[in-house]
Amino acid sequence: MKTAVMNVSKGTHRQTYEKRCDSYNTGRKPRDPAICPNCHAVFMNGHWQWTTLLPKRARQEICPACRRIKDNCPAGTLLLKGSFIRAHKAELINLVKNQELCEKAEHPLNRIIRIEEHPDRLAIQTTDIHLPKRIADALNHAYKGDFRVRYEEGGYFVQVIWKKEE
Ligand SMILES: [Zn+2]
């Protein structure tokens, strides 16, 4: 699946970081086995996974990550701020996407919903609460910087802000 990169001009797009998506937090699990008709992740043995061994008689059920993407309902946000961003946007986006690929290979439900490009910052929305910090760790490893992590809603929503000045 392709990650959408949006060009958002300043001031035209209301930030949706604080959007609440409580219906995803019920912890409801589908009946085993199920397959997501959209991304082909398989729910088997109690968790969503990538597998080529498709179980027989799997029911079709949209996985939580595809639902969050469809509904534009993030569980996590990562904001990249600071004067460093403006000059390094393309390489930062590359790193962000590579981290998503690594994470998604292991955890099918951990994905980027979209990357918003602003003149002086990048805003990344994710389907899960782990990916923003994983990306921030990778950014620090590559460029050094500072980040802070804030969990909300009893741990169901995370906001990470990574900052670096030139
Ligand atoms: Zn899916």
Bound ligands, named by name, code or SMILES: zinc ion
Class from helix and strand fractions: alpha/beta
How would you name the oligomeric state of the polypeptide chains in this document? single chain
- Let me know the number of strands: 10
The topology string of helices and strands comes to: EEEEEHEHHEEHEE
Strand order of the largest sheet: 1-7-8-6-10-9
Task: Give the radius of gyration.
Answer: 17 Å
Write up this protein.
The structure is a single chain. This protein has helices at residues 64-71, 83-87, 89-106, 131-143; strands at 4-7, 34-35, 42-44, 47-49, 59-60, 76-81, 112-117, 122-126, 146-152, 157-163. It is an alpha/beta fold and 166 residues long. The chain has a 6-stranded mixed sheet. Strands 4-3-2-5 form a 4-stranded mixed sheet, with no helix packed on it. Strand 7 and strand 8 form a beta hairpin. The longest helix has 18 residues, at 89-106. The structure holds zinc ion. The site of zinc ion has 8 residues, from helix 1.
Quick synopsis:
The protein is of the alpha/beta class.
Please supply descriptive tags for the structure shown above.
166 residues, alpha/beta, 4-stranded mixed β-sheet, 10 strands, 27% helix, elongated, binds zinc ion
